[in-house]
Amino acid sequence: MAAEPWIFASANPHKLAEVQAICPVRPLPLGLPSAPETHDSLHANALAKAAFYVSFVQQPVVAEDSGLFVPALGGKPGVHSARYGGPVPLLIAMQGISHRQAYFAAVVVAYRSPAEYTFFTGYLAGTIATEMRGSQGFGYDPIFIPQGETQTLAELGADWKNLHSHRAQAFKAFRLWLEKHLT
After folding, report:
1. Residue in 40, 65, 141, 159 annotated catalytic
2. C-alpha to C-alpha distance for 59 and 48, rounded to whole angstroms
3. Rounded to an integer, what distance in angstroms lies between the CA atom of residue 102 and that of residue 27?
4. Alpha helices in the chain (DSSP H)
């Protein structure tokens, strides 16, 4: 593995804790401005975040963007999940909708320079619950039931999520890449 963990380009402490349980990363230095997330794709947002933060820290970073996609809502909240308003507005939007399939997608980028970066992706299919359930996790975890499960991510807890989530899949692929390419 790399001699020193990469910097994780996120100011979200929940994501940092989740990612650190999967692979070695270091937090961003305190006091940096937030990276803009103005693009229409997870890939473009992750890449923009990485480029933004590498200019401050002058060393390789790993950045992530993720979203919850609900086909019955035309893919919303999607790439705008962090700014959609959370689970309550989504539950309101889903009232009366029987087609409740959804999926989480995550895109991770290992970024050294504009000419040297690699993407990793992860997906988690499931359905949207009719009410919030559980107290673990963050974001949309209390309303997302993974395929094959009866409990929400917030009920299943961190151990399950760190093994199976969209973010876990993408960061495990990043960790394997590190082990293969940077030893």
Report:
1. 65
2. 15
3. 30
4. 13-20, 42-57, 81-84, 87-93, 153-156, 158-164, 166-181
Cα 110 to Cα 12, 63, 95, 101, 173: the distances in Å are 18, 7, 39, 30, 11
Q: What is the pTM of this model?
A: 0.91
Instruction: Sketch out the chain's domains with CATH numbers.
Output: 6-181 (3.90.950.10)
Angle in degrees, CA 177, 79, 32, rounded to 5: 70
User: How much is the average pLDDT of 150-174?
Assistant: 95
Q: pLDDT-derived band of residue 157, with 50, 70 and 90 as boundaries? A: very high
d(CA 47, CA 37): 10
The C-alpha atoms of residue 82 and residue 63 are separated, in whole angstroms, by 15
- Spatial distance between the Cα atoms of 87 and 39, rounded to a whole number of angstroms: 22
Q: What is the pLDDT of residues 1-15, one digit of tens each?
A: 444 678 998 888 888
Helix axes 166-181, 13-20, angle to 10 degrees: 50
The answer to whether residue 159 is catalytic is no
